Amino acid sequence: MHEKERDLVSAFMRGEMDRRELIRGLGALGVTAGTAGTLLNMAATKAMAADFDWMKHSGKSIKILLNKHPYTDALLANLDNFKSMTGMEVAYDIFPEDVYFDKVTAALSSRSSEYDAFMVGAYMTWTYGPAGWIVDHNEWIMDSDKTNPAYNWTDMIEGVRKSCAWNGRPGGALGSDDAMQWCVPWGYEQNNLSYNAAMLENSGIGIPNNLDELMEAAAKVQADNEGIYGIGVRGSRSWATIHPGFLSAYSNLGEVDLNVSADGKLSAAMNTDASKEFHAKWVKMIQDSGAADWSSHTWYQVGTDLGAGKSAIIYDADILGYFMNGGENAMAGQLAYAPFAASGNGAPTPNIWIWSLSMSKFSRDLDATWYFMQWATGTEHALFGARNMDFVNPVRQSVWDDPMFRDRIAQSYPGYVEMHDVSAPGAAIKFTAQPLFFDLTTEWAASLQKMVANEVPVDEGLDQLAESVNRQLNEAGLG
Question: Residue 387: enclosing H or E segment and its boundaries?
Answer without folding.
Answer: helix 379-388
